[in-house]
Amino acid sequence: xxxxxxxxxxxxxxxxxxxxxxxxxxxxxxxxxxxxxxxxxxxxxxxxxxxxxxxxxxxxxxxxxxxxxxxxxxxxxxxxxxxxxxxxxxxxxxxxxxxxxxxxxxxxxxxxxxxxxxxxxxxxxxxxxxxxxxxxxxxxxxxxxxxxxxxxxxxxxxxxxxxxx
Length: 165
Hints:
The chain is an alpha+beta fold. It is built from 9 helices and 4 strands, in the order H-H-H-H-E-H-E-H-E-E-H-H-H.
C-alpha cells in the first residue's frame, strides 16, 4: 500500500453521500451508539497511540457494511489517531479482498498490521454451527440490530494494538 492509493479512497462524508437517505440516517444512529461503546474507559485503555490508516473495502448496498462500518468509523473518530478511507471491493481485489466489508489496518508507513473481514467472530461461529434457517435467524436478527457491535469493536482494537506490542 502507498499513500497515493490509500488517499484515493473516499472520506466517510463522501461515502455517505452515496447512500440512500434512510440508510444514511441508520448509519449515523449506529455510529453514535458505537461511539458510546468506544468511549468506555476500558476501551480507551486498549486504544493504540500510534498513527493508523484504516482501509475500508466497503459498498453502501452491503448489509454487513451497514452493520460494521459505523463501528470502524466510530473507533476512528474516538481514537483520534486513525484515518479512514473507503474503497470499493473491485478496487481492492488485488489486495485479496473478496468479502466486504474488509478493514485493513496499516501503520504510518503503510505496512499492514492486520485485517478484519465481514462479520465479528461470534457471528461467524454461530452461523457456521446453525443447522436450520431458524437457528441462523436467532443470530442474524440480533446482528442486524447491533447486538454484536462490541465484538467488532473489540476485534478491531485487537488488531490496532498489535502496533504497540
